[in-house]
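Pasting as-is:
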Amino acid sequence: MVRISGVEIYHEKIRYKEPFRIALGTSTESNNIVVRLVDSSGNEGWGEGSPSRAILGETLDLVFEEAKKIAAEILGKDLDSEGLYEIVMKSKSPSAAAAFDIAFHDLKAKRLGVPLYKLLGGYRSSIETDITIGIMEPDEVAERAEKYVKMGFKVLKIKLGEKPEKDLLRIEKVRERIGDKIGIRVDANQGWSVEEAIYMAEQLESFNVELIEQPVKWNDFEGLAKVRKASNIPVAADESAKTPSDVVKLAKIDAVDIVNIKLMKTRGIWGAIKVAAVSEAAGIENMIGCMGETRLGITAAVHVSQALANITINDLDSDLLHGEEVVIEGGASISNGVRRAGDRPGLGIVKLDMSKLRLISRYGKV
């Protein structure tokens, strides 16, 4: 059990290197929540949440109000992972919940003196991530793909979801530029109709695409099942799968091959473990992705991926798309597409740039 003696809630605004466009819209910056938890011995844990209006229905005001409610409820309580999960599941803000859960597990692992991934399962010591290319003109996508391959990435994730003809041209141009040895994954972010998705699955097969992520609207489970039945390329659910019960619904109708876990959707690490367990029981593979987290939140996801065998596909790159970073020292490293959480206790975050954090509220003894 961990007794929470102090809580600090911060706002963090981080700009992207360039506008990042997907089928759901364009982002120029991440407005995140950062949480610091302190126990009675002065140990601290840090967590980050990256809100999403389009996917999670959140506004920044809602996130901070819900964070204050969680802080008030946990202050002075003796908690463990399941008890905290019960509390954060009541929150109207999944990303605020995730920030608290991540901070709690950072604190818990630090108290035990072990890296978080070893506490959670310790399956592997590194992972390979793709890197994402947003929606651009076809020649621009190909140019960016070549740049990332030269940087050492062996798998690319390409955002699609516009008209099929232009989406296909994007992939054709990329293959021409990078050859056949580099992996390609595509993500439509709900941008296609069922008919368009089935057509795209047939056409993309000749380009050796590894997976098609969220081809249709998030709530069209039957449509997703139709696409999966017609596709020889594995189909992944992202926006359609936020909770363990969502995975059960998808599994019952054989709608997907893969479920994309995101800590912001699952309300943190403990929820991610539950989604992974249900997926594994249903014979569904997991990938793990991200929203707009900095290296703080990305590091938490790397620990989860290193911990669990059922997570075999990684899309943990949002910090690489940012033009600035809050983590000064520590956290998950990156080299030629390979990420390592490292062996420091907890998340392994050593130092944050506090000038990038604006204090929202403080509770208890910190």
